[in-house]
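ok, trying the design again with the full structure, not the truncated one.
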């Protein structure tokens, strides 16, 4: 699971780091480059929605192997082409593999570690965060070392191959869900989170926090540059948000699992983010380190909502259904974040309006958080 988690953002952040080189190398237009940067949220939303349907037909271990193989193929094919269209299509193929793994991991944690779900969720979320940072930080040096952006993107296919290997024996032994249901003598009713209040609250919370997260990843460095920091310093401050988030990602699911209600976490994370946004609006240069630390705490909403997916479902089927709906609908919301921040920044020439947008998203996130904070299960609302 940790090896899979290392791969869940590397294909995305390595492209972001090398986007200028890719544009020059294969002639991506500005519009095409914009599509490439928006593809992750679209793929995670669209392909993730199909995962519960696939889980009812194929064993999860086999699906995970298939997803990782698709990721390998997509990453290899996109670095050997000189066509912008083929590059986009193969990138989408790679992202399809990630989308399936995104949805499956909470379910697999529930299946294999039912009594240590918080610990394992924290471990794989921390690994995902670390993989994100490592890919972003090393893609350019790797490309320079080998003299080509293709190496900086293609090297991550080897990491995906490594993630496949431990799952192959499990996939070979796995039975299909239908065979397992016959053996057990029962078939569970299908869970439909879209028909429940809890399902929509989870989707809105996931979407609002992801909107803010993608906006921060895309624009925080520019904000710091506009406030007077050198480009290298602004990049380090952005990296600081991810670095400080690693231990938070490790601890958050365990803390969430031990609390009777998630209200203290929801409120605490909301306050941290709100203080960071206000600070960035009023004193972005003088208080930069404090705002980075508060942003890192606020971004703990991501590991918390991943943990909540497992906490708010009793069964593996309920977990995968809730995971798929929350992430699919949530990533559609998240896709608006970087785009709207960019539009407001360009139209107003400053950061007040974008930060107001993030505060509004935070208020929506907190409202949804109050709904998911109370102990309940998706199966009870079915």
């Amino acid at each position: 699971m940790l090896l899979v988690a290392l791969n869940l953002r590397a294909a995305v952040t390595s492209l972001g780091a090398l986007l200028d080189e890719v544009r020059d190398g294969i002639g991506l237009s500005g519009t095409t480059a914009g599509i490439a940067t928006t593809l992750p949220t679209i793929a995670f939303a669209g392909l993730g929605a199909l995962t519960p349907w696939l889980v009812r037909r194929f064993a999860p271990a086999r699906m995970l192997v298939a997803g990782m193989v698709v990721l390998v193929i997509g990453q290899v094919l996109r670095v050997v082409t000189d066509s912008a269209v083929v590059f986009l299509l193969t990138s989408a193929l790679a992202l399809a593999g990630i989308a399936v793994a995104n949805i499956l991991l909470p379910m697999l944690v529930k299946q294999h570690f039912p009594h240590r779900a918080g610990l394992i969720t924290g471990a794989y979320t921390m690994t995902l965060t670390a993989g994100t940072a490592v890919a972003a930080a090393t893609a350019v040096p790797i490309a320079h070392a080998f003299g080509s952006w293709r190496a900086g993107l293609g090297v991550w296919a080897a990491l995906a191959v490594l993630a496949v290997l431990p799952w192959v024996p499990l996939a070979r032994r796995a039975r299909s869900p239908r065979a397992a249901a016959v053996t057990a003598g029962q078939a569970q009713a299908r869970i439909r989170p879209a028909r429940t209040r809890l399902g929509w609250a989870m989707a809105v919370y996931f979407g609002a926090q992801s909107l803010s997260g993608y906006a921060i990843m895309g624009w925080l460095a520019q904000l710091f540059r506009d406030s007077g920091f050198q480009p290298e310093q602004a990049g380090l401050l952005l990296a600081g948000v991810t670095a400080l988030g690693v231990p938070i990602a490790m601890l958050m699911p365990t803390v969430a699992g031990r609390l009777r209600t998630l209200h203290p976490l929801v409120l605490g994370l909301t306050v941290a983010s709100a203080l960071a946004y206000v600070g960035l609006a009023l004193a972005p240069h003088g208080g930069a380190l404090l705002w980075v630390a508060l942003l890192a705490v606020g971004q703990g909403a991501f590991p918390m909502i991943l943990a909540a997916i497992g906490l708010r479902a009793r069964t593996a089927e309920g977990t995968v259904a809730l995971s798929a709906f929350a992430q699919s609908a949530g990533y559609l919301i998240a896709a608006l974040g970087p785009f709207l921040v960019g539009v407001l920044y360009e139209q107003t020439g400053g950061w007040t309006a974008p930060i107001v947008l993030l505060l509004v998203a935070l208020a929506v996130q907190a409202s949804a958080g109050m709904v998911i904070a109370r102990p309940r299960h998706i199966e009870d609302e079915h």
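Keeping the full-length input from now on. The longest helix spans residues 117-146.
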